[in-house]
């Protein structure tokens, strides 16, 4: 028989005695469902289940016999007798725990037994690492499966699923590699095939509905009924603002105080700002900070001299220690961008805030783009070919040096009423440059709309109209009205932080 499941999905239909779907009849039905959905094969545990599934399909069955014994580490089909049972029940492929670790019968013996007694049966080697593979190449398994990656002491730190391992094995041998272990999303299955997997086994994500349910529940379990609040803090160079909001971003309470000039006092200041607004229904705290933030760990990777000593501060850890409430920390422009997205609730937006510098954030379908090092959207340091001004970052010609609020206040003779000819010329040049930036970014990320916040909206609609006109001159495909003034005000950072803390779960 030729086993044809190349680039197919194999569904592992297993339920242990303690699980709700335990029983061969149920696993048989699970297999029927999997096959209806397009599975090219089934992986099944125990002779009873294999037998039941064999009755309903001719598709390849990978059979295993899970046998956990206190004295041994190996546990997937570990004796010759188990191999006999799995094969006699109707498996086409027998999966054998093929890591050199303590076991009742030597690995070589199991392979020899299977080869001699069942020459038509294929052997699949369940392994955890490329080192395991090197040791078993002489046994010549027919397939190698990454099943055990993540489940041994040596591999517990590997990424899940371990797509990289597929590549490592395919570089070592031509034996077909089957990807298995911790595949939860369809995109991961696709990635596995693109990385060289012969086929992919998905288990619990399909055949353990209790796990699937839990995954859905986890994403909403910390979201409360509508009767909850969140605290958002926006740590600015001059003011630190805090708000208490409901889950729709409505401000219930707010507070602000001046930002102190050293890191230890900044933490104390944030704590005070939280204390001033927090109530008994607060379930999350969000903190918006300038600088580059390690979002996952809530740590400041880099902050400028506006906040001396702030770099390296473990904000999330410190705040969670004090308040014992889930805390998220992100760049202030990202938080404000999220607030803007939350108002639109759709598509891809770019948010640009014009302040001392130029900050920006990109939000796509509710996901904030952070990049690999947390600096995605740092558009202020894109170099503008027509400028050679020195930037605070050390480079020359950054767009921030000609578009920031600081540039305007240093160059306009009357920032509040720029009506003289020289000021008009500066503003007109400013709008051209801004249009150049929007065009560059539209060509890069093709957003639905760009929202400009910070000091710019204060100049009124003539500035916006002028940027739109200049944009239409250079970008021939898009209307100028994709450029808008931000509709979120001064509280964008703090309210955005509160909303991020409630909804962003990455
Ligand atoms: Zn720069």
Description:
This protein is α/β, with parallel strands linked by helices and 506 residues long. The chain folds into 3 domains: 9-216, Aldolase class I (TIM Barrel), CATH 3.20.20; 229-334 and 493-503, ATPase, nucleotide binding domain (Nucleotidyltransferase, domain 5), CATH 3.30.420; 346-489, 2-Layer Sandwich (Nucleotidyltransferase, domain 5), CATH 3.30.420. Helices cover 36% and strands 20% of the residues. The chain contains 17 helices and 20 strands. It has an 8-stranded parallel barrel with strand order 1-2-3-4-5-6-7-8, surrounded by 6 helices. Strand 19, helix 16 and strand 20 form a beta-alpha-beta unit. The longest helix is centred in the C-terminal third of the chain and has 25 residues, at 421-445. The structure holds zinc ion (ZN). Zinc ion is lined by residues 381, 391, 393, 395, 398, 400.
